[in-house]
Design goal:
Fe_traffick_prot_YggX_sf; mainly alpha; single chain; 90 residues; iron; Probable Fe(2+)-trafficking protein; Fe_traffick_prot_YggX; iron ion binding; 49% helix
């Protein structure tokens, strides 16, 4: 049976992640409060951010940039701003 969570990003009950995908307290918070759908949205944003800013995930400072953007996106309702990227019109 699928695990459901009240997703903080989508503000609705949705399928939760199958397992904790991020380490530590933040990972637990994501696991408990973020749906698969919202995590998928973040993954797309993260890829754009890494490519746009040419981030290296082996670099501690770059990982901090990504983590900060992740917290802002998932929990604070702030969209990821990618220079020169225009989202497709709805």
């Amino acid at each position: 049976m699928a695990r459901t969570v009240f997703c903080q990003l989508l503000q609705k009950e949705a399928d939760g992640l199958d397992f904790q995908l991020y380490p530590g307290e933040l990972g637990k918070r994501i696991f408990d409060n973020i749906s698969k759908e919202a995590w998928g949205q973040w993954q797309a944003k993260q890829t754009m951010l890494i490519n746009e800013k040419k981030l290296n995930m082996m670099n501690v400072d770059d990982r901090k940039v990504i983590e900060q953007a992740m917290v802002e996106f998932l929990f604070e309702g702030k969209d990821v701003v990618i220079e020169g990227y225009t989202p497709p019109a709805k």
